[in-house]
Amino acid sequence: MLPHPPKHRTPRLLRRKGIPSYVVGMPFARLASATTPTCHIGLGLAAVGRPGYINLGRDEDLGADRSVERLRTRTHELLDAAYFQGVRYFDVARSYGRSEEFLADWLDKNPSRDDVVVGSKWGYTYTADWTTDAEKHEVKDHGVRTYDRQRAETAELLGDRLDLYQIHSVTPDSPALTDKELHARLAEAAAQGTTIGFSTSGPAQADAIRAALAVTVDAEPLFRTVQSTYNALETSAGPALAEAHDAGLTVIVKEGMANGRLAAPHAPDALRAVAEEMSLGCDAVALALVLRQPWAGVVLSGAATTVQLASNLHAAVVDLDDAQLSRLAELVEEPQEYWERRGQLPWH
């Protein structure tokens, strides 16, 4: 068993309720009783639910055989490894190829693992038809009809195992922030027991988060979770995520590895140096930097192999000193620069 997390990972208590802040307003209450630090790390299946994705090093990770059954097997191996090492949150989406299907199969085969928390997302439609060279791999639409269709598709696969349903990649101009009919649909799902959240993307994540915090139905906040990109290179959403945390939302962090830019052999020199000092992988240090944020409830691993996953999970016990943090802080890029570079990553 891994040792207990360093003190900076102990969640603050909300004075008004006396329970851990990462539990408030979300289905992650089942994680509150977990005793291992890896409960703060989740597994996202974007990299293994479809044959093409924008992560660097994907050719080496997956190899040539990316058939449905090969990726199904790989996904199940990852889920088994994650569960046995204390991970309890699993993240999928309608646009992640067959990720919902693969996860549903695994849940059906492991009915006793009822302590896991499942989150999915709607708003993008997967259009690559299981190829890596499609002109478009996914199409975005935050309209009510897309929600109705994709909610039914998700329900058919995950049924009552779905805990959290998120709007995928909200931006400040997203109609999902102003569509009252959509809000009513989402509120209805919340009343039936599904937690409603949203994810963000792009250089204006902070603006999208603050706009979403203002969305209410019958004077009650609609969203209970937010999932955003935050890593050593892109920190601009940090203040808004802290505000969301203080408002009672659970913060889930995605792309902590910057789509492979923070993993060897692509990691910048400063990150490599700190990792060498600690005799750890660059990935563990990069994820530890995110985990230490007081507002971070769950940080996603996007591992494509069980070896990567094991290395990622070491992040839960990494304690960075002030000098190391100062060196890593110099890696931050301007948001526009970061997202432009991300947009240029090829689909492997």
Q: Strand sequence of the main sheet, in spatial order?
A: 1-2-3-6-7-10-11-12
CATH architectural label: Alpha-Beta Barrel
Q: Which class do the helix and strand fractions yield? A: alpha/beta
The H-level CATH homologous superfamily, spelled out, is NADP-dependent oxidoreductase domain
Share of residues in helices: 25-40%
Q: Round the mean pLDDT to the nearest integer and report it.
A: 90
Could you name the CATH topology? Answer: TIM Barrel
**Estimated share of beta-strand residues:** 5-15%
Largest sheet: 8 strands, parallel, barrel
Q: Give start-end ranges of low-pLDDT stretches.
A: 1-25
Radius of gyration over all CA atoms, rounded:
19 Å
How many structural units, i.e. domains? 1
Number of strands: 12
Number of helices: 12
The CATH class designation is Alpha Beta
* Large-scale geometry: globular
End-to-end CA span: 36 Å
Pfam family, one: Aldo_ket_red
Organism: Streptomyces sviceus (strain ATCC 29083 / DSM 924 / JCM 4929 / NBRC 13980 / NCIMB 11184 / NRRL 5439 / UC 5370)
InterPro entries: AKR2_Oxidoreductase (IPR053135), NAD(P)_OxRdtase_dom_sf (IPR036812), NADP_OxRdtase_dom (IPR023210)
Protein name: Oxidoreductase
Description:
It is a single chain. The chain is 35% helix and 14% strand. It is of the alpha/beta class. The strands form 3 sheets. The chain has an 8-stranded parallel β-barrel with strand order 1-2-3-6-7-10-11-12, surrounded by 6 helices. α7 links the parallel β10 and β11. The two termini are 36 Å apart.
In short:
It holds the Pfam family Aldo_ket_red. This protein is α/β, with parallel strands linked by helices and 348 residues long. The protein contains twelve helices and twelve strands.
